[in-house]
Amino acid sequence: MPIRTAVPPRVLTVAGSDSGGGAGIQADLKTMLALGVHGMSVLTAVTAQNSVGVQGAWELPVEAVRAQYRSVVDDIGVQAVKTGMLSSAVLVETVAALLADTDAPVVVDPVGVSKHGDPLLAAEALDSVRTKLLPLATVATPNLDEVAQLTGITVTDEPGMRGAAAGMLAFGPRWVVIKGGHLPGEPVDLLTDGDEEHWLRAPRHDNRHTHGTGCTLASAIASGLARGEDVPAAVRAAKEYVTGAIAAGFPLGGGIGPVDHGWLTRTSG
Fold this sequence. Notes:
By secondary structure, the protein is an alpha/beta fold. The chain has 9 helices and 9 strands. The chain is globular, with a radius of gyration of 17 Å.
């Protein structure tokens, strides 16, 4: 077997662990492997989590988060960074300070609650997300619950997504993806920088096993950016990847199963 000498693009995820393997760090690294980049990780929290919910969460010390980040970035380097579960104001501010000193695009998934409705971000951390983290984002990827948390805007229909996008862009990200999958009808996401608008549509698959969709989308976008794609191209490709992963989602345990991060390999094989 020939020895590989080319170094793949490197993407760093800063997020929490999902012991069930469907979301969080585990979903991020699976997505990155599937999309041809080298995934690296900074663990921010450990959760006890399965298909029915989150049974516990333990935040890592700031020193551990900072040391992991510096260890990777200072030696290996990164072409993109993705953030997920940051849980507390002190962690949000710590990670924001690290990102501000890193020359790479940043995808911020402002994780607020789990797929099961369990809180993953302290209420007092919301202002830090607004003022410290979002201004550093190349792309922010909130779902409608996270839009409501951060802006106070409740979206009930497709036209309302424009107002949600404006509310999010006011915090400073260059681009925002408003994920409208929870609205009735055909799933649609709005990607905009305030000038350009891209409405990304996909068929709705009759599959309840969608655990990890948000983490997977953000990681797929970061993977595209690391490969040198522009934001619209990276988001469009990520949407296609996630749509296929949802279609192939499978049951695990007694609750909501995960999307299938390896669906590309299985369909091409």
